[in-house]
């Protein structure tokens, strides 16, 4: 089956969840985080106590909806349009990377473990893992209430929280922790705090996996793409978000105390090389279109959507001609069995 028909089929299924989410929005008695009582939640406090947000105190800018948590650095919107993009990105990544994870945890997942999806977003990965591994229990955490709240596999549940502050689960609770695409959400200090939290909630011998994209390679694709990348990286730096977080993952995981750290690198073509390249360009285009208001500081001419649209078209052409790609880092590591001896 081709990727497009696979995506259509999956989107058809995913539409069911989206419909549920939209129904919830119309319903003023929308379930609040207070109604979610996950097993294993630390008795010392919940994320709602730790965060200045309850996940639904959104702010609106340029017709888009964003999280309203002053302590969360995340750049992108959290509305339905963004949820659609993140869903599509999931199918693309699963296809391009040939699976949902690279850690050696398949057997444990089949037998049944607790899994955390850190920064789960609209929870496509979370749901799929719940359906594929019914004996495991999958917990999703996000700063925004963007995950479906009523219809979900029985072994999936969610909590609102800022992963860089306090992950509201007991120590040594999870057998596997997964975190993907937080590159636009965590400052340097947030990365340190988040990895310390993930280390704490992971069982000795349990695996952590972080998946992130490195956009730095795109600097050499051509002058238009370079201008875009420089603006994007400038915006990240201004917000103290490290733009090299993907290539730093190995070091960051080791520094947090994880052992057996392994890096899997995948080159995903951007706007060339068939369907994956085309779909990655669509995703890139979507992100950079959404980011325009935050990038005009670099070039006031981009205030004009037409000028900016031309820049994106020219960047697409450069990437096609010069075979641009995004380097994808899948990095996994293990919490030592004996954390006192470092093994
Ligand atoms: C690009 S989405 C990725 C979603 C999901 N991991 C995936 O790969 O499909 C990033 C998500 O991280 C969440 N996020 C960003 N910073 C966060 C923080 N400090 N604590 C919790 N969630 C955060 C955002 O709300 C958003 O839903």
Give a short synopsis of this structure.
With 343 residues, this protein is α/β, with parallel strands linked by helices. It has 10 helices and 9 strands.
Q: Write down the Rg.
A: 20 Å
Which ligands accompany this protein? S-adenosylmethionine
Could you say what the CATH architecture is?
3-Layer(aba) Sandwich
Give the averaged pLDDT, no decimals.
84
Query: What is the SS-derived class?
Result: alpha/beta
CATH class: Alpha Beta
> Largest sheet, described in full?
7 strands, mixed
Low-confidence stretches: 1-39, 42-51
In the CATH hierarchy, the third-tier topology is known as: Rossmann fold
What is the CATH superfamily?
A: Vaccinia Virus protein VP39
Helix fraction? 40-55%
H-E order: HHEEHHEHEEEHEHHEHHE
How many runs of DSSP E, i.e. beta strands?
9
Count up the helices: 10
Give the N-terminus to C-terminus distance in angstroms. 46 Å
Work out the count of structural domains: 1
Structural shape: globular
Strand order of the largest sheet: 5-4-3-6-7-9-8
Strand proportion, as a percent range, falls in: 15-25%
What does this structure look like?
It is a single chain. The chain has 343 residues and is of the alpha/beta class. The chain has a single domain (3-334), classed as Rossmann fold, CATH 3.40.50. Helix content is 41%, strand content 18%. It has 10 helices and 9 strands. The protein has helices at 3-26, 47-50, 80-96, 106-111, 124-132, 188-201, 223-238, 245-255, 275-295, 305-322; strands at residues 59-61, 64-66, 114-118, 137-142, 156-160, 174-180, 202-214, 259-269, 325-334. The strands form 2 sheets. A 7-stranded mixed sheet has the order 5-4-3-6-7-9-8, with helices on both faces. α6 (188-201) links the parallel β6 (174-180) and β7 (202-214). α1 (3-26) runs antiparallel to α3 (80-96) and α7 packs across α10. The longest helix is centred in the N-terminal third of the chain and has 24 residues, at 3-26. It is globular and about 55 Å long. Residues 1-39 and 42-51 have low confidence and may be disordered.
């Amino acid at each position: 089956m081709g990727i497009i028909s696979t995506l259509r089929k999956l989107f058809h299924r995913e539409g069911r969840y989206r419909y549920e989410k939209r129904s919830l929005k119309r319903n003023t008695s929308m379930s609040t985080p207070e109604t979610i009582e996950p097993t294993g939640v630390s008795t010392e406090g919940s994320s709602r106590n730790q965060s200045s947000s309850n996940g639904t105190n959104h702010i609106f800018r340029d017709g888009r909806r964003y999280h309203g948590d002053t302590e969360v650095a995340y750049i992108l919107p959290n509305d339905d349009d963004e949820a659609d993009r993140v869903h599509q990105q999931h199918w693309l990544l699963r296809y391009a990377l040939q699976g949902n994870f690279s850690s050696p945890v398949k057997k444990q997942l089949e037998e049944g473990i607790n899994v955390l999806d850190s920064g789960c977003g609209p929870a496509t990965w979370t749901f799929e893992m719940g359906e594929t591994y019914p004996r495991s229990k999958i917990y999703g955490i996000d700063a925004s209430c963007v995950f479906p709240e009523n219809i979900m596999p029985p072994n999936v549940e969610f909590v609102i929280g800022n992963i860089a502050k306090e992950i509201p689960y007991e120590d040594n609770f999870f057998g596997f922790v997964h975190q993907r695409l937080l590159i636009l959400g965590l400052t340097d200090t947030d990365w340190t705090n988040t990895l310390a939290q993930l280390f704490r909630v992971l069982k000795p011998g349990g695996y952590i996996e972080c998946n992130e994209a490195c956009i730095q390679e795109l600097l050499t694709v051509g002058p238009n793409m370079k201008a875009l990348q420089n603006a994007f990286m400038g915006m990240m730096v201004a917000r103290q978000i490290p733009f090299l977080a993907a290539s730093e993952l190995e070091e960051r995981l080791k520094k947090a105390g994880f052992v057996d750290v392994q890096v899997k690198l995948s080159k995903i073509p951007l706007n060339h090389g068939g369907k994956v390249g085309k779909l990655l360009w669509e995703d890139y285009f979507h992100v950079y279109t959404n980011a325009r208001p935050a990038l005009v500081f670099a070039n006031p001419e981009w205030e004009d959507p037409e000028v900016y649209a031309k820049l994106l078209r020219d960047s697409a052409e450069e990437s096609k001609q010069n075979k641009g790609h995004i380097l994808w880092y899948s990095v996994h590591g293990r919490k030592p069995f004996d954390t006192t001896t470092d093994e």
